[in-house]
Amino acid sequence: xxxxxxxEFAKLVDVVAELRGENGCPWxxxxxxxxxxxxxxxxxxxxxxxxDHGSDGKLKEELGDVLLQALLxxxxxxxxxAFDIGDVCRVIREKLIRRHPHVFGEVKVSGVExxxxxxxxxxxxxxxxxxxxxxxxxxxxxxxxxxxxTEISKRASKVGFDWPKVTDILxxxxxxxxxxxxxxxxxxxxxxxxxxxxxxxxxxxxARYLGIDAEDSLREMLDRFSSRFGQIEERxxxxxxxxxxxxxxxxxxxxxxxxxxG
Length: 262
What we know:
Layout: H1 2-20, H2 26-29, H3 33-53, H4 56-79, H5 85-98, H6 101-104, H7 112-124, H8 145-158, H9 166-186, H10 189-209, H11 214-238, H12 248-260
């Protein structure tokens, strides 16, 4: 099994190198690390979509697309003499072994909490981390805002900057909601924008405190919204109308019906 996987991986590496080679594909040959950025993000989200749909065939295909992006970046680095895919594999292999002393060493752990604690301690002692002055350093600014907010929230909590209980966060949410209402009443767009951000961040903290992924919650809600709105559109079509021809009361009635049916 391992030999077969290694053989397929090696053949894929050769294919990517050929695509970038002298007689390769014009599109692949013109790519750079920067030009490939959107494709890596897009392919990652397509993997998540495949997971959501529970399709093994689609997941296999989309994981291949993500792997292709990694190989293209590694090939670009090899061409300029920086590193190659072998270096990438070695670095991650060594990191996994180093950060799992309870598997590859003699360290004993009693559960997940011990594992996470050891992981953070080991990571803090690795090269590249010595210059970090803040517990929040290292959270990529390029992350989607909701995911970045969740990570920042987690890091602040780890050093004790957190609410004692979830009801305290809900009190803060009510406070932010009132401040948002005041900002809207003031008519100052800058204040409204700031208060919307504050409110969103408190909601992220509620989710984090309860062990819920805010990103997943929002994605699931959007799926529900799309499904229910689709039923409104279908009702309009069934009566020979456009959605815009329906009254808000009609839309709400269909929405409530769709909500009751799940």
